[in-house]
Design goal:
Layout: H1 2-17, E1 25-31, H2 50-58, E2 60-66, H3 72-81, H4 85-88, H5 121-127, E3 131-136, E4 154-157, H6 173-185, E5 192-197, H7 209-214, H8 221-243, E6 250-256, H9 285-288, E7 289-295, E8 303-305, E9 309-310, H10 313-322, H11 336-341, E10 349-354, E11 365-370, E12 373-378, E13 383-388, H12 404-420, H13 434-441, H14 455-473
Parallel strand pairs: 1-5, 1-6, 2-8, 2-9, 3-4, 3-5
Antiparallel strand pairs: 2-7, 6-7, 10-11, 11-12, 12-13
Length: 485
């Protein structure tokens, strides 16, 4: 009875605002560590992703979509709240990497969960009378900070790995998808927010043997096979919507939590993000840019958009499209006018604060994109890098020396933003050993690693560096701390 009353009031509210009387469903599909150029529609020829390619062709594909931060939990927190990870003090994966003698600075101590007082997308939809469901990966805190406490009425959290079989992939892709389809089918007349958070294609890489064999010519055959599996599950979700006659009543969003993993970690070197520099764990474009597709048949005209956006924009955007109101200040904006009418948002800056060393070889840093200019500051030596993305999207030519005034102006603007959000800063590491740190972070700069012919060649080229990194993280074991999920 309470849900019926809420929905009735909500429909009157929508009509008063001139919004469609029947609010749209929302299907949000999130990949895990999928690179900006990993899909066919983004130019990757050795990967077959026909369902996602068709979704992009009939929807809006963004070429400059940014994650909240180039690491899992931080980006997911931004996605769920519309706020910067720096403002949330959740700036790396949970629980975070331990400090090591190779670090000049200590890691910032972060929150170990998304606080319950933060309002999530699910809670906003719940207030609008939507059915809400999460299927797959949460990674924003353990009990009591679970998705059930953050607005999700139906939850299936799966493990990150499964044994590939005739009915399953290597990351529980089909279990996640079947549960999501069952959820959508249970609500044919009630609007739903369905969040499908895959573990694919995060390491450990695994897929069915016949698919791996199919992709023997790919950079990484197992990775390519996993992407076909992921694409197949997207096709299943879209087919379910079609069979329920809900396609034109559903906003479908596909994106990744951060850039692709471009280095050898665990037992795998999954992908490369060419022509962009680096990948997951870095503030270069290969770590921050992610594939992003919006679809709402009959409402969003097909387009390829170069305008930068960030995953923090989802909260304000979906609330505007679905008739909600956001009263508090967010770090993201609504891009609904861009999606509906092609109206460009006002120019804005995109700041990122990442005060951590990563398993991928990055050091504590900050970044600011302003138009086609991009500033990066490394916190351990206060060095500045300046790139003109319009001429140098691969961020290879540092212009800070040639244009010191521009670099300093952007730096001051970035520092001002960092102060305004209460960003936590690093402290010196009293146990730092310069010689050991130099071997890992300077003698081999993993951000400049050029993709070889295939993943196995890349593993051989990075083997010695990875052994040094693993020994620093877990002294005496030589094992990688690659359990980040």
């Amino acid at each position: 009875m309470r849900i019926r009353v809420l929905l009735t009031a909500f429909l009157f509210f929508l009509q008063a605002r001139g919004v469609e009387a029947t609010p749209p469903n929302v299907l949000l599909i999130l990949a895990d560590d999928l690179g900006i150029n990993d899909l066919g529609c983004y130019g990757r020829t050795e990967h077959q992703t026909p369902h996602l390619d068709q979704l992009a062709a009939s929807g809006v594909r963004f070429n400059s979509a940014y994650c909240g931060l180039s690491i899992c939990s931080a980006s997911r927190a931004a996605l769920m709240t519309g706020k910067s990870p720096a403002r949330l003090n959740l700036t790396t994966y949970l629980p975070g990497r331990p400090d090591a003698h190779t670090q000049k600075l200590l890691q910032v101590v972060i929150r170990q969960q998304l606080p319950l007082e933060e309002i999530t997308l699910a809670e906003r939809f719940e207030q609008l009378g939507y059915a809400t469901g999460l299927f797959g990966k949460w990674h924003l805190g353990n009990a009591p900070f679970t998705p059930e406490r953050q607005g999700f009425g139906t939850v299936l959290q799966t493990g990150g790995d499964s044994v590939p079989s005739a009915t399953e992939g290597g990351k529980n892709e089909y279990a996640i998808t079947r549960a999501a389809i069952e959820f959508m089918e249970r609500h044919p007349r009630r609007p739903f927010f369905c969040y499908v958070a895959h573990h694919t294609p995060h390491i450990r890489l695994a897929a069915r043997a016949e698919l791996i064999e199919k992709y023997q010519g790919a950079f990484n055959p197992v990775y390519a096979a996993m992407l076909e599996t992921l694409d197949d599950t997207v096709g299943m979700l879209l087919q379910s919507l079609k069979e329920q006659q809900l396609l034109d009543k559903t906003i479908v969003i596909f994106m990744s939590d951060n850039g692709g993993l471009h280095v050898f970690e665990g037992k795998d070197l999954p992908t490369h993000n060419s022509p962009y520099r680096a990948g997951k764990g870095y503030l270069y474009e290969g770590g921050l840019r992610v594939p992003c597709i919006f679809s709402w048949p009959g409402r969003f005209a097909p387009a390829v958009v170069e305008t930068p956006i960030v995953n923090q924009d989802l909260t304000a955007t979906l609330m505007e499209l679905c008739g909600g109101i956001v009263s508090e200040e967010l770090d993201g904006i609504s891009i609904a006018p861009l999606l509906l009418k092609g109206i460009e948002p006002a120019p804005r800056q995109f700041p990122f604060h990442f005060p951590h060393y990563t398993n991928q070889g990055s050091r504590p840093a900050g970044a600011l994109r302003d138009g086609h200019w991009k500033l990066i500051e490394y916190y351990d030596d206060n060095s500045l890098e300046l790139y003109d993305l319009s001429q140098d999207p691969g961020e290879r030519k540092n212009l800070a020396g040639e244009q010191p005034a521009r670099a300093e102006s952007l730096h001051q603007q970035f520092v001002s933003w960092r102060t305004s959000v209460g960003a936590h800063l690093n402290a010196p590491n009293p146990a730092y050993e310069p010689a050991a740190g130099r071997k890992i972070y300077h003698d081999f700069n993993s951000s400049l690693f050029t993709p070889p012919v295939d993943a196995q060649q890349g593993i051989r080229q990075q083997q010695a560096w990875r052994q040094l990194m693993n020994a620093a993280i877990r002294p005496g074991t030589g094992q990688s701390q690659s359990g980040e999920r």
